[in-house]
Amino acid sequence: MRWPEAALPALAALALSAGALAAERESEYSRAIETIRCDCGCHPQSVADCACGRAAEMRREIAAQIDQGRSAEEVIAAYVARHGEQIRIVPEARGFSLVAWLGPLVLLPVAAWLVVAVLRRWRRRVEPALPALDPDDPYLARVERELEGS
Amino acid sequence: MIALGYYALAAALGFAVWATLAAAVAHRTGRADVQCSAERGVVASFALILVAVVALLHAFLTDRFEVNYVYSYSSAAQPVRYKLAALWGGQAGSLLFWVAILGGMAALMIRANRRRNRALMPIATAVVAGTMSFFLLLCAFVENPFELGPPRPDGVGLNPQLKNYWMLIHPPTLYLGYVGFTIPFAFAIAALVTRRTDDVWFRTTRRWTLAAWFFLGAGILLGAYWAYIELGWGGYWAWDPVENASLMPWLTGTAFLHSVMIQEKKGMLKVWNVLLVILTFALSIFGTFLTRSGIISSVHSFATSGIGPAFAVFLGIVFFGSLALLVLRLEDLRSAARLESLLSRESTFLFNNMVLVGIAACVLLLTTFPILSEWVTSRKVTMGPPIFNLVNVPWALVLLFLAGVGPLIAWRKATASHLKRQFTVPLLVGGWVTLAALVLDVRRCTAALGGLFRSFVRLDVVGALEHVQTFYAPLAFGIGAFVLATVAVEFHRGVRLRRHRHGETAARALAMLLWTQKRRYGGYIVHAGIVVIFFGIAGSSAYRVEHVAELSPGEAAQVAGYTLRYEGARLEVEDDHASTVVELSLFDEGRFLGYLEAEQRQHPHFVYPQLREAFERALERRGADPASYTQAVREVYARIAALAREVGREVHTPSTEVAIRASFSPLRPTRFAEDVYVIPLWTDPDTQRASFRIFVHPLVNLIWLGGILAALGAVVCVLPDLRERARLGVAREAERRAVA
Predict the structure, then answer these.
(1) ipTM score of the complex?
(2) With a CB-CB cutoff of 8 Å, which residues 638-657 of chain B face chain A?
(3) H/E/C letters for each residue in B132-183?
(4) pTM, two decimal places
């Protein structure tokens, strides 16, 4: 429950008239406050997470708008229209911002593939003259054991 | 004293520049006397920097408010410890402090190498002295801490959020880390320039690197702890640019500490190791640049000024200059890289390096993305914590897994039976813990599975990622348990072997194991500490409970099985602030745990005499008749409000003291290392009705405990080691013979 103080009576009224509707409003509200950034000027935090007084004010503003029957998307769009794209705590995953969203996740397998490629190249440099060792050779296992013990 | 400090800075710059030039000449001509002069120049420069530091501290202690820096960061009423800590409270003083630490390290480097590494020393001295010259240049001409203004009766004072015990130790620790990487960097450059690219340079700087890595890591954790208890938003890490700036060199430094082992054992990865040292140093400078230039607006950049361009130029010279040198020397560094098996310690180290550098790259991308986005699309965007968490956690989990795999896989080649023997127990432990974590939170997990499926159907990538996040914590617990099990297996095996061979008791065998193989077993302890930190992060971020309550005295709120009863509020004045103190009593399932006190503080700006007067009157009534005391404090509040209306801007700085109650009781094992964390939001002075934000953070204290464990492990690693010294001797001898 993150409903701010000012909106409590309104929420109670909604709850009386239609419980399902109130739950839906509640989820719209939390979606909005988790998407919109607190404009207090500290490090970026969503309105839901920021601890400053400004966040409490913004929560009341947003709650009032949700109470008027607007959806989270409409409220967010209004904020974006007024303050620009940066009022979102994270950019939408489209256009150039996809680089930030997917870049790191794509990089992980690409980097792993690169490392494997490097390792394979290194392995080929080992002189083929060496006889292939049987990993289950009991003598070898003993050597391994003793090497480890040392 | 102020004039003395000013001239000492200028003279220190002169000596540093001399040392740089003389050392370069000494390298060219090979003249030992010129090198000796350069080294003395560095020491003289350091001594003069110390004079400047003492002069600035003297100005703080004697309240010389005509000095702009003292005026901005101190006030007459400021406690002595914060007058001293104000040295690094702002831009100019931070730079002076930075260069003072660098000077100290340079002097230490010269002393430690006065009879050794004579071939490497000229260039190493030149690099360190050059770095000192740059920072002294900034101190003397761009951000001079001794700059004078008009005479002033009192100062503004340190930002109240900085008036905290941790202000005394967090910045110096972090700076020791940042600055410490200069020495390994200097030796790496010296090795490149003199073409002595064998083992000597990194064996010489091994302990410098470890110490810098240790201090940077400790600084990061102390910063997190400070944010947690002082900034009062309920978290400890916000992916703030300045936090990221300290994390990146730590990551590349960690990568270096690991990959250098491959060079030690197999003579491979020479280029990569030099590159990592260059990256780490460049990222340290970049971190200082981010902190100090305020290029990406951030909470830590309390001071901003025009030193950005100077830093950008220096950073460019350091980074591209070093890279160019590296390219010129590629031929020397060519090593016969050979690998016998993909399943070997070598390859896990390579993956470990990939992940560490990969995380650093991701953090760099996301931190600078607002600037990138503005360039490319001319739209500003915000990079909030959610995106950092989402994209970095998968990397971090892979890293954690490798921390368990690496130490158990043999060098050269691991065999199937060997793997089976090593990994059976740890894998079983890890699997069971993952399963338990999933089952204990089964409702959320099944909901996330459903959501994941729906997102896939709708091709909603971000939505899918958000559902995947639900599984991060169970995976972190499982993989962490796997790593802890591998560490336990290693210790167990070592102890058993010693007992068998030397007939020692278990305790003695353990102690001897640590003493005789400090690097290996110290490293395991560091790994265990890191795992414990991961547990703390996973628990406190995935299972935290938050509740906002508005209560009148006597009413109670229920949060995650705790009951918090609001007892009432009172007004106080103390030190330099007026505060509203709220008191709650805390119960766990009916059992009384104790009282919690949280405060909302107002720090009046004492440059306004009417505020100072009201404040002092309230301070006098403290301890006397409660009614008249409260009345006097209310007067302070009333005057702040009236004056703010009158002058049209804030005349006070607010701050919050949160209440934290940690649980370590053996009676409640499920609450072990858990915090109840209360932030006061507002209080009505008439009715005493108050609003609170209450968090329950499971396992959060494991972050700090894990940090202590990792620090202990690092200390074991850095203790003098006879075998290590012998290896360095062998490397030097080999080099001497090769040169001869």
Answers:
(1) 0.76
(2) 654, 656
(3) HHHHHHHHHHHCCCCCECCCCCCCCCCCHHHCCHHHHHHHHHHHHHHHHCHH
(4) 0.88
